[in-house]
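Regression test case RT-17, inverse folding.

Input:
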């Protein structure tokens, strides 16, 4: 068995590291003896022995339990089993006995094994690189691929994991998470997760970075050291129920570290408090949920301190209470009780009973002075801890629960002068029990960085010059109005709400939004100074948008309806709103405040619609609401026209830092009020280290772009770039291929080019990018060509570009005629065959044609084998030979092109083979499966009948593919039919036929 570089650099070292951690290696040769068949994944003897060893049961009971466990096909159900939630009748016992498959308290009592090349048979048989087992149960799949990039998660390894999850789902029934590694970097993610959710475990707490020789050793220890793996399974995985379905979530390192520090502090008993700062957007609600889960279930710990604790989670805002309660309930935590009234709170905490998990707002403690008896058995987690200490609320809480343990959580750093928060939650000499700051979250990809740009300084309001500005801006007001304002004193909001200023800024917002956020489906918040300004922005924006729509040809009435829907206002109602006013302007604003107001239910709907890509509104216009606790990844830009500072500023800007798809590289604050010009002052009350990168100046990005461009330009310097037509550009591309020369140089250039393109995209539509546009087009289109030449595969870079960049590059490809050179054709495209004509072609032309045809055939063969492995599997080796020929110096380019043509003709003939056989494509595909099992002369007839079984609505009614009962019945039919035909493989054939039918007949 020959091994490629992935074996040497990633797969073998991974296995060796796991052996050093105490895992036994199971060689490939042992797979058959450990499993009930190649389509099974449990190691039967290991699981049966573990059941007997851990539970003290006999062989017969263990065998029966194994039978039940092997039938479980739901990942959430398997997690419950792993955590000890499985029971069955056992002879000699009246009641069902709980049977454990893992011994959490004694890791050494479990059998940890690792194996590789585990062949799992299915319609598309797959062999993952490495599988990690505990007691015969597959828990982790590891894919070893090279190279990986932590920022650019588009590699083959992730595609491979997705493919395994789709083609061999049985291996993932009991899976807890997956790992991809290139032998240096280790990334992990819950099964079912998209690649963007895969992350590195950056902190090996309680060990240090220096305790490990390199990244592979550290990553594997963090995730798979037996004790840590058991802790992760027991306490750090949840299934969160959402409107879009159930999402499996596994903790990040800061959540694991913070929760374990809390638990250690409870067990230690020395300090009864701690302060945790986990920056906004990094999963603070989930951290609290994991903490509750470990404190309540503590499967890996035996301690009197955790016998039956009470947990109380407190917030100081109704929206946060709803959010955290929702998280706890959705994650299926043990009996979370949202407390709805003061009476309910006191009934619960004064019941004298233990074991509660209660969620409440701190306001329900108002006036409470009488201590409860069992307060020492309460663990209180307080969200936004710095705010809850205000207005004596903290004092009432402590008077009621004098001996409780208190853990304060905050999403923003605590101010230097906030003595209350440090006194109530901090331990002397310890700023935070656990800190996960802004830079940590950005470095991990848990949040995106936030940049700011100040718009025209004439719109900024300098309070020191307020009177001068007022005289300039309000010169046209009549004297009575002027005197009235001057008499009461000129205020900032008088200037901020100047009608001309609002109009100009609304125009700027609409122009910027259309160029920056809208092309990729992102949305925006406008933060106005007060409720009147909210209405003024709404009116100005609606008028602008309606005007643009009319220019595009929409009639006036329809344009106004569309424009109205594009923005929604969210603010609190005020009793003044209903009062009549003699001032016409005031009255008009009050009427609009009533008209635009959305109540609690309507607000929920507006927020949901805002969170969806294809729906209006595009803008939320706010002044106070939705600046905290509002979590919306689709928001990429905030237009700020309110003088926020300190906590309010940090909370507000974090609305833009949530991770979305690959096109969202950062959040952007467009500042119209001048906050960014005085950023240091606005954040002066925090430690400089805590907030230094809260908002980064867009100028930083501009200089990064200049640097990235200079690096790429230096590599391209030997190429004289002047052409703007297809042949000239292709000649330049070929010259640059020679300049790069080796694969190593190509990969280096590709990484640098991607960095340049990403920075250009992030800044677009900033005017600073214009000088780099011509080079960007050349570089991005060369990547398409270079990927074919150096890697013989299709480039997918353009899929990850933002819409605005992709459109520009497509236009350039078409305008220059380059699309003919870099775009791949499909074998069914009549133009596909033109390349094989060798007449009048130079050696250079033949080389280009041979490389392109091989790249196209690689794609075709992969698709065909994926679609029908029994029919097209034979082309796999032919493709490998063709790729080898392409590297051969002995063959001419004309010979290489002929070899590609032969392969193409044979695939094309195979596509039509069903016609010659007189069968439908479906029946022919089934016949190839049957032939693999040695079918006789009646194979064709059997194939036709099997196709009929899955296509006739009487035997396979619509939706059969979603109904387990129907699928089972169809498999039984297949079993009977193949049995009557004299075939012996009565288990494998029905499974392979069903897998084929799911691909070719389901949904038809």
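Golden output:
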């Amino acid at each position: 068995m020959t091994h490629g570089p992935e074996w040497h650099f990633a797969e073998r070292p991974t296995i060796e590291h796991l052996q050093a951690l105490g895992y036994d290696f199971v060689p490939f040769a042992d797979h058959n003896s450990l499993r009930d068949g190649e389509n099974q994944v449990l190691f039967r003897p290991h699981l049966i022995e573990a059941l007997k060893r851990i539970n003290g049961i006999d062989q017969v009971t263990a065998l029966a339990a194994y039978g039940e466990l092997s039938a479980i096909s739901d990942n959430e159900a398997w997690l419950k089993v792993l955590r000890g939630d499985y029971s069955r009748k056992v002879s000699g016992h009246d009641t069902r006995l709980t049977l454990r498959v893992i011994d959490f308290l004694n890791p050494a009592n479990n059998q940890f094994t690792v194996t590789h090349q585990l062949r799992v048979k299915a319609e598309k048989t797959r062999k993952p690189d490495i599988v990690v087992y505990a007691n015969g149960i597959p828990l982790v799949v590891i894919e070893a691929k090279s190279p990986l990039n932590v920022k650019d998660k588009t590699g083959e390894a992730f595609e491979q994991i997705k493919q395994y999850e789709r083609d061999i789902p049985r291996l993932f029934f009991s899976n807890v998470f997956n790992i991809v590694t290139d032998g240096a970097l280790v990334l992990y993610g819950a099964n079912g997760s998209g690649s963007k959710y895969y992350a590195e475990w950056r902190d090996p707490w309680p060990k240090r970075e220096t305790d490990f020789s390199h990244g592979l050793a550290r990553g594997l220890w963090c995730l798979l050291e037996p004790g840590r793996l058991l802790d992760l399974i027991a306490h750090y995985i949840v299934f969160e129920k959402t409107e879009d379905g159930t999402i499996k979530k596994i903790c990040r390192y800061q959540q694991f570290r913070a929760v374990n520090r809390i638990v250690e502090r409870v067990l230690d008993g020395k300090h009864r408090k701690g302060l945790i700062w986990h920056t906004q957007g990094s999963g603070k609600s989930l951290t609290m949920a994991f903490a509750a889960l470990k404190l309540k279930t503590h499967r890996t710990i035996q301690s009197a301190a955790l016998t039956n604790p009470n947990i109380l989670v407190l917030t100081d805002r109704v929206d946060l209470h709803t959010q955290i309660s929702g998280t706890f309930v959705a994650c299926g935590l043990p009996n979370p009780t949202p407390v709805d009234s003061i009476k309910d709170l006191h009934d619960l905490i004064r019941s004298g009973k233990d074991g509660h998990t209660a969620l409440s707002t701190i306001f329900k403690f108002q006036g409470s002075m009488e201590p409860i008896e069992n307060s020492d058995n309460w663990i209180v987690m307080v969200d936004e801890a710095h705010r809850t200490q205000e207005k004596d609320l903290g004092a009432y809480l402590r008077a009621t629960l004098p001996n409780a343990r208190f853990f304060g959580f905050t999403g923003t750093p605590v101010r230097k002068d906030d003595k209350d928060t440090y006194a109530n939650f901090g331990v002397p000499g310890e700023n935070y029990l656990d800190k996960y700051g802004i830079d940590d979250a950005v470095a991990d990809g848990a949040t995106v960085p936030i940049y700011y740009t100040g718009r025209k300084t004439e719109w900024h309001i300098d309070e020191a010059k307020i009177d001068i500005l007022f005289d300039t801006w309000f010169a046209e007001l009549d004297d009575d109005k002027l005197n009235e304002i001057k008499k009461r004193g000129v205020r900032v909001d008088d200037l901020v709400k100047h009608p001309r200023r609002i109009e100009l800024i609304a125009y700027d917002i609409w122009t910027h939004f259309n160029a920056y956020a809208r092309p990729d489906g992102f949305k925006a918040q406008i933060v106005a100074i007060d409720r009147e300004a909210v209405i003024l922005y709404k009116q100005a924006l609606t008028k602008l948008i309606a005007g643009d729509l009319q220019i595009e040809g929409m009639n006036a009435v329809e344009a106004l309806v569309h424009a109205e829907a594009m923005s929604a206002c969210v603010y609190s109602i005020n009793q003044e709103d209903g009062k009549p006013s003699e001032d016409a302007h005031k009255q008009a604003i009050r009427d609009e405040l009533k008209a635009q107001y959305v109540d609690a239910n309507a607000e929920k709907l507006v927020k949901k619609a805002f969170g969806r890509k294809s729906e209006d509104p595009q803008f939320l216009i706010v002044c106070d609401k939705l600046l905290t606790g509002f979590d919306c990844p689709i928001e990429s830009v905030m237009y700020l026209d309110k003088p926020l500072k300190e906590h309010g500023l940090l909370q507000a800007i974090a609305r833009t830092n949530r991770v979305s798809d690959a096109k969202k590289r950062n959040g952007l604050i467009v500042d119209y009020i001048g906050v960014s010009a005085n950023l240091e002052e606005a954040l002066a009350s925090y430690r400089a280290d805590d907030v230094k990168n809260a908002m980064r100046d867009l100028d930083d990005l501009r200089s990064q772009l200049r640097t990235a461009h200079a690096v790429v330009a230096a590599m391209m310097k030997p190429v004289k770039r002047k052409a703007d037509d297809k042949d000239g550009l292709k000649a330049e591309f070929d010259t640059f291929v020679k300049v790069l020369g080796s694969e190593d140089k190509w990969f280096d250039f590709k990484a640098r080019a991607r960095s340049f393109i990403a920075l250009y995209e992030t800044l677009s539509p900033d005017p600073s990018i214009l000088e780099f546009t011509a080079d960007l087009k050349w570089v991005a289109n060369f990547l398409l060509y270079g990927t074919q030449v150096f890697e013989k595969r299709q480039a997918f870079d353009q899929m990850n570009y933002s819409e605005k960049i992709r459109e520009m590059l497509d236009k350039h490809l078409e305008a220059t005629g380059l699309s003919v050179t870099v775009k791949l054709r499909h074998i069914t495209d009549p133009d596909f065959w033109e390349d094989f004509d060798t007449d009048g072609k130079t050696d250079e032309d033949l080389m280009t044609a041979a490389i392109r045809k091989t790249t196209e055939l690689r794609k075709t063969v992969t698709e065909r084998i994926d679609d029908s492995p029994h029919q097209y599997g034979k082309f796999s080796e032919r493709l490998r030979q063709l790729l080898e020929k392409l590297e051969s110096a002995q063959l001419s380019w004309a010979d290489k092109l002929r070899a590609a043509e032969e392969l193409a003709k044979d695939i094309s003939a195979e596509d039509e083979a069903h016609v010659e056989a007189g069968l439908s494509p479906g029946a022919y595909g089934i016949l190839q499966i049957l032939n693999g099992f040695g079918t006789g002369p009646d194979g064709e007839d059997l194939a036709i009948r099997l196709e009929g079984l899955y296509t006739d609505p009487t035997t396979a009614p619509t939706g059969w593919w979603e109904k387990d009962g129907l699928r089972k019945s169809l498999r039984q039919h297949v079993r009977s039919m193949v049995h009557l035909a004299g075939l012996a493989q009565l288990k494998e054939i029905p499974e392979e036929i069903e897998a084929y039918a799911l691909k070719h007949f389901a949904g038809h």
